[in-house]
Structures are given as C-alpha cells and as structure tokens.
Amino acid sequence: MESNRENFASNLTAILALAGSAIGLGNIWRFPYMVGEYGGAAFIIVYLAFSLLISLPIMLSESIIGRRSRSNTFGALRKLSKGRAWSSLSLLTVLSPLIILSFYSVVGGWSIEYLFKAFGGAFVNADPDNVRAQFAAFTSHPFLPLVFHTGFLLLCAIIVILGVKSGIEKFNKVTMPLLFCLIVSMAIYSLSLPGSRAGVDYLLKPDFSLLSPKALASALGQSFFSLSLGVGTVLTYSSYISPKENILVSGVGTTVFDLLFALIAGFAVMPAVFAAGIEPGAGPALIFETVPFIFCKMGSAAPWISSVVAILFFAAICFAALSSAISMFEVGVAYLVEEKGLSRRKSVVCIFLGVWALGALCAYFPRLFSLCDTLTSNYLMMFGALLFVVFAGWVMKKEDVLSEFSSEGRYPLNRKLSGVFYFLLKWVAPIAVTLIFITNFLS
Ligand code: TRP
Prior knowledge:
Helices cover 80% and strands 0% of the residues. The chain is mostly helical. The mean pLDDT is 93.
C-alpha cells in the first residue's frame, strides 16, 4: 500500500493544504468576536503566544507521527507503538472529523444557498427583520437544507476521489490564494465605509483588564479549533509531506496564515458591522443574519455594489468551508483505503453515505446539531490532541521524534530548537490540554 502513496509536490503546497484545513468558518464567525470581547490587541498577543508555545508543538507532534509512519491516523499509532492499545484509542480520532464533517457540511450547504441568494440580489434593500426571516425560513424549509447539504458533501467527495495531488492539492493551490484576495478586498471595502472606525477600535484597542481566566481558556480553545488540532487532519496531511521537507516551516507557515486570515476576516466583518450600527455577535448568526444586513444597508446607495460584495463574501465562505471539509473527509478515506483495503472510490462512497446520513439528521434536529458540535469541539478534539502529544512525548523514542523534527538532521535551526521544542511537547502541551479539558468539563 505504501509504495503508491502520493506526496504533496512541495512544502508550499503542503502549507496551502494545511492552511486550507485550518482556515474555516471558525476564523470568520468566532475569532473576530472573541478578540473584541476579550480585550482587543491584548487578546491577540495572548492568542499568538498560545499558538506558538502550545498549539504549534501539538501540530508538530501530529506532523511527526504522520510523516514518520506515512500512514493514516490508526495505522500511524499501530506502526509506531507495540500492542494495539494506542491504535484502538486513535479510532476515536478517525471518528471525530467525520462527526464534525456532518454538521459542518450542513453549514457549508447554507453557504452555498446564500451564495445563490446573493447572486439573485436577495439582500438588496431588505431590512434586518427580513434578513432574519429569510434565515429562519430557509433553515426550517422541508427539503432545501438537505439539498444543499447533499450538494456540498458531493463537491467534497468529488475533490477527494481525485486523490491527494490532483484533487486536494490542486483545489487548495487555486482556492487559497483566491480566498486571501477575496477577504483582503472585503476588508479594504469594509474599512472604507463611514463609521468603520468603531470596528477597528473594537478589534485593536488593548484592554488587559479583560484578560480573565475565561478569556485565556477561550484563547487556547479557539487556537486549537482554528488550527484543526486533535482530529487527525494534520496527521493525515503530514503523512503526504516528503521526508525531505521542513515540517517546522510548514507548521509555522500554517499557524501564521491562519492567524493572518482570522485578523483580516475581523477587519472584513467588524468595521462593516459597526458602520451599519448593529451589535457584534458570534456564531452562525453573525454570518447568516448580521452580515447580510450590512449588504442591504450598502444597497441603498448602489444596489449592484452590495450584490457584488455579498457574492464575494459568500464565495469566500464556501471556499473556506470546502477546503476544511475535504481535510476531514480525507482522514476517513485514508483509514478505509489503508486499513480496510478498499479502493479510494469505494472509501469515498462509504464515508459520503455515513456522513450524509448524520448530517441530514443534524439539519433537521438542532439539538443533535449542537450535541455533535459540543461533543467534538469540547471533548473529542481535546482528547485527540492529548493522545497525539502524549504519544509523541512519552511513547515514541526521543531520538525518533527529534530526528523527524529536523528531517534526519537536515535542518540546523531545527536541531538548535530541539531542546525547547521537546520540552514544550513533553511538558507544556499535555498540561495545557488537560487544563482546557477540565475547564470544558466544568463549564
Ligand atoms: N479549523 C476549522 C475552522 O476554523 C474548523 C475545524 C475544527 C476543522 N476541526 C477541524 C477543520 C478539523 C478541518 C478539520 O473553521
């Protein structure tokens, strides 16, 4: 099986794929709001520190396990440990991205529907009540959410069936730069609106008094979620990185891109929110209820501008959601291909059917939707992150971990950083994950 495994063409395309997985709805609907609520620039500094000191070592431990074993999540832990205990535990991390994918695909479907709405000029001159009513009408429609969920998942399936190079790599190579251009132009536009200043202050004004313990826990939790840690996507994608590439570069590159995107998304959304005189908020409501209203407001001057901006915005949301979704899909497919000996095509069909069914239920039962969401983001992701750091820090041999970290000693800077990295991996990361786990459990 190993001989016909594909690799990414270069470290740059690996970064684009990893960033594609990381950059998603979380960057747009949660990060900007958290920044504003928890102290602006003060929160950003803490977030950056946590990302580099805690999330990055976890990401690197997933990369090390994936690339060392050149396997899917389950196979990786089986190959690198004796006995079956560790790989049995890793089955949960094959399952959790598929659970995330099921409700993520429902939201992905909403984004496609909203892209269509934007093309049809649905938000021009609508008032806030009307926008809210449109969202309620759509989500409670008897079959439209199902149709769009199916469409979104089919798109993912097609990309994944094409394979690592011709599907996943190619898709990210095209859409990631495009996504950056879209969000940057949105931000420029948003900053040019009269009254946008309040949004900039909301995002940047440092207020250290808002850095409560809850703010710190949220910063770390968001950093995990945003970098897609603990669900085996980083592990699986890293198993397609050539042994010669520098995984420190791909890890840092992904972290920086993800943060940069979240910040620019903040500048795309919040100044416009304030310019329109509405309250900022987080969650699906921000994207599907608040933001469309901004487009309506702009429409009063020149309807075509608001239609164009709405189209750009929802196109960006669709790309961001798709590139994350295919990474979750690939975790399951790699498992079925390598562990169960199915063909890629058959594996894609199996995953499609399972995820489709759970997603369809989530589309109609909001309580199941939020159960899947809480279960994965509060518990399963944390469990996965802990599993991977403990495995890399305490089960694998130190020489193996460090030799993979420096690509068999190829990179002198990595060799110099080995001590710090190993300390963060072995002590800091597991303790931090355990703390968040406990916080989540208590709240
Ligand atoms: N990082 C994604 C976002 O910011 C969400 C996410 C969480 C994710 N876990 C994942 C994406 C696993 C892909 C794979 O929206």
